[in-house]
Write a structure and sequence with these properties.
heterodimer; A: about 325 residues; mainly alpha; globular; B: Methylamine Dehydrogenase, Chain H; protein phosphatase regulator activity (chain B); repeat (chain B); PP2A_PR55_CS (chain B); Serine/threonine-protein phosphatase 2A 55 kDa regulatory subunit B (chain B); WD repeat (chain B)
Chain lengths: ~325, ~450
């Protein structure tokens, strides 16, 4: 390799082709801040929910060091790439202990399920004041569809069977209110209480519809909340009041719709929401890192489901996407 | 890639130590004008800062044309959409210069919703000797005026003023991601996620919609427009890229609404690399015509591809920008880095292409020699007049000295925006809130 460039030999500027001999001098400027330039008063950076105060954090470090966030899918990439091995980190005995109930080897189904859950969380997390990025939402929604299609083909679509008749107790449905927290609350480590949930096991068809209505109303309501200016912490009573209002709205709009569309709009509760809920409950109630006592075991991947449930879940997803993109 | 590059350093450190990083200062676009004399940057706070190249002086030939601040103005202000209860960011998404036709400079700057045409002009003379006003501007009593004089122009300190000449608003429902000036210099287009509009510079209350990919039922939406650009010579031709990794070339002569493409560029998927993230990493973040107009370059998450306009079924060149991230896609998905939109640029002769990466690295690929280099834009590793040292990322196994392992890359330091001087080897690299200007060293 020549030591001198043509420049050094006094010839004309070297052709760009000789990249290895290009040398660069640094002239560095920064834009001068204007006096009185207003800074944005709210926080709008992309932030992972599960890592508090994560303004421009280094994800790779977080994942691969012993200080691990509450997200149980540590070392996701290893799980996804190798599929069979699970790395053990120092200081994570707690995690290992609580996850003793599940298989030690994360299966492909598990990885896929975790990716689906993560994607659903992402779809529901939105910046409060600024419109969500449509490209990002579409890409995530496509990923979710792809996973769900594959799950449908495999027949491993997981549903919690909530058809326990006569059960009037309130089951827990993840409200997106919980998933979207202001960064302030995150920093303070508050636990936003009260997901209002409704069982879909009311007796009678009308009641069935109304319960499904409420479950979707909760997501619609939550999505509307995402676009409100002020992020308020709602207690469970407030939630129920809001649900009642949105319930009325939903009923009004649905009066003219055909029964088929009603069926399409309101689907059964998705098991993935349930999983997300239990895991997030555990995570949020623990402020210490590495403390994962609240984690519940992953659902068994052997639950079977009918294909009609899968289709209605896909429709529910479409419905959510529709709300997101039309807002 | 041989790495025995000399590292001559000149001991003149003038680096300021600004450790604050306000979000409003994050640079969101960088663009040279057509002569390279001016360099415009837009930031997240809606400001535009224009740098001008110093005239070369014979006294100091080694200080060949440094860039100094020429003008700063607030282009866009934050707005509030009351109907949707959403804020419209003032962040400048793109700046495009118009070719110079008189003494003033014109540029287009856009945020998510509104495009503005700015005129940047110099004022170095002012008239003195008015009859009806005195020097302070106060009106004189007409009865006190005894003689008439002709005002004369006297030199004053150079003042650069920026005035908004046109505001093109209310034409986009979705977020504008690209603007492109047509080669006829009378029209330009603005592209958002689902539509592309054609504007005339003189008309602000109307625009033509030339592409609309919004489905009738939004539930069926699976693809969005990510970037668009006019052909540099043919005023009827433009391309737009999509989130599915496809590029469509359209001819405006065929129909008013260019929903049907003239050419469709798509590379068949490699089945061995298929994963859940395949679609996301294939989403094209930037598309640029070469200066010759013969090629287009596209940037997706991991690669840069050069396409020949005459061949639609695959690119003619593919360059790996940071393939070591392929095994980290899930982490990058989790922290949203996988959605980062990197830009790419051609050099003046279309022989070298450049794009950014993480850890303040940027990459250059020489299309002729097939050599590539990774450089870093950071204050710690560079001093003024110092030669940049090529960097290397090691993927695993033994890490040599001076190499950086993938796990210690800083993903918050990303270089999304770069620009290349149209005729010389001068590049501008935006690293978060810092602008670096590099030029090849001349003795």
């Amino acid at each position: 390799m020549p030591v001198e460039t043509q420049e050094e030999r006094g010839e004309t500027a070297s052709p760009v082709g000789e990249i290895q001999l290009l040398r660069w001098s640094l002239l560095s400027w920064e834009p001068l801040p204007l006096s009185g330039a207003s800074l944005r008063s709210h926080d709008s950076w992309t932030c992972s929910l599960l890592v508090p105060e994560c303004r421009l954090w280094d994800p790779v470090h977080v994942f691969l060091t012993p200080v691990v966030p509450q997200w149980p899918f540590y070392n996701l990439d290893t799980m996804f790439m190798r599929g069979l091995k699970r790395k053990c980190f120092d200081g994570e005995e707690d995690i290992e202990g609580t996850l003793a109930g599940i298989k030690a080897i994360p299966s492909y189904n598990l990885q896929r399920q975790s990716l689906l859950d993560m994607s659903l969380v992402k779809l529901q997390l939105c910046h409060m004041l600024v419109e969500p990025n449509l490209c990002r939402s579409v890409l995530i929604a496509n990923t979710v569809r792809q996973i769900q299609e594959e799950m449908t083909q495999d027949g491993t679509w997981q549903m919690i069977n909530m058809q326990n008749t006569g059960q009037a107790s309130v089951d827990r449905l993840v409200s997106t209110d919980i998933l979207c927290r202001s960064s302030r609350e995150q920093a303070e480590g508050k636990h936003v209480p009260g997901y209002s949930t409704f069982s879909k096991d009311f007796e009678g068809d009308q009641a069935q519809d109304s319960s499904e209505t409420m479950s979707t109303a909760s997501s619609v309501q939550a999505l509307r909340n995402l676009q409100s200016n002020v992020w308020e912490m709602e207690n469970s009573q407030e939630n129920k009041g809001n649900f009642q209002k949105s319930l009325d709205q939903i009923f009004e709009t649905l009066e003219n719709k055909s029964p088929n569309s009603v069926e399409d709009l309101f689907s059964e509760v998705d098991n993935s929401y349930y999983d997300l809920d239990t895991m997030l409950t555990g995570m949020m109630s623990n402020t210490k890192m590495g403390h994962c006592d609240g984690l519940e075991p992953f659902p068994s991947p052997t639950t079977t489901t009918s294909s009609s449930n899968c289709k209605s879940d896909l429709n529910e997803l479409d419905h959510i996407v529709e709300i997101l993109v039309e807002s | 890639m041989e790495e025995d590059v000399e590292t001559r350093k000149i001991n003149s450190s003038f680096l300021r130590d600004h450790s604050y990083a306000t979000e409003a200062d994050i640079i969101s676009t960088v663009e040279f004008n057509h002569t390279g004399e001016l360099l415009a940057t837009g930031d997240k706070g809606g400001r535009v800062v224009i740098f001008q190249r110093e005239q070369e002086s014979k006294n100091q030939p080694h200080r060949r044309g440094e860039y100094n601040v020429y003008s700063t103005f607030q282009s866009h202000e934050p707005e509030f959409d009351y109907l949707k209860s959403l804020e419209i960011e003032e962040k400048i998404n793109k700046i495009r210069w118009l070719p110079q036709q008189n003494a003033a400079y014109f540029l287009l700057s856009t945020n998510d919703k509104t495009v503005k045409l700015w005129k940047v002009s110099e004022r170095d003379k002012r008239p003195e000797g008015y009859n009806l006003k005195d020097e302070d501007g106060r009106l004189r009593d007409p009865s006190m005026i005894t003689s008439l004089r002709v005002p004369v122009l006297r030199p004053m300190d150079l003042m650069v003023e920026a005035t908004p000449r046109r505001v093109f608003a209310n034409a986009h429902t979705y977020h504008i991601n690209s603007i492109s000036v047509n080669s006829d210099y009378e029209t330009y287009m603005s592209a958002d996620d689902l539509r592309i509009n054609l504007w005339n510079f003189e008309i602000t209350n109307q625009s033509f919609n030339i592409v609309d990919i919004k489905p009738a039922n939004m539930e069926e939406l699976t693809e969005v427009i990510t970037a668009a650009e006019f052909h540099p010579h043919h005023c009827n031709t433009f391309v737009y890229s999509s989130s599915k990794g496809t590029i469509r070339l359209c001819d405006m002569r065929t129909s008013a609404l260019c929903d049907r493409h003239a050419k469709f560029f798509e590379e068949p998927e490699d089945p061995s690399n298929r994963s859940f993230f395949s679609e996301i990493i294939s989403s094209i973040s930037d598309v640029k015509f070469s200066h010759s107009g013969r090629y287009i370059m596209t940037r997706d998450y991991l690669t840069v591809k050069v396409w020949d306009l005459n061949m639609e079924n695959r690119p003619i060149e593919t360059y790996q920008v940071h393939d070591y991230l392929r095994s980290k896609l899930c982490s990058l998905y989790e922290n949203d880095c996988i959605f980062d939109k990197f830009e790419c640029v051609w050099n003046g002769s279309d022989s070298v292409i450049m794009t950014g990466s993480y850890n303040n690295f940027f990459r250059m690929f020489d299309r002729n020699t097939k050599r590539d280099v990774t450089l870093e834009a950071s204050r710690e590793n560079s001093k003024p007049r110092a030669v940049l040292k090529p960097r290397k990322v090691c993927v695993g196994g033994k890490r040599r000295k001076d190499e950086i392992s993938v796990d210690s890359l800083d993903f918050s330091k990303k270089i999304l925006h770069t620009a290349w001087h149209p005729s010389e080897n001068i590049i501008a690299v935006a690293a978060t809130n810092n602008l670096y200007i590099f030029q090849d060293k001349v003795n």
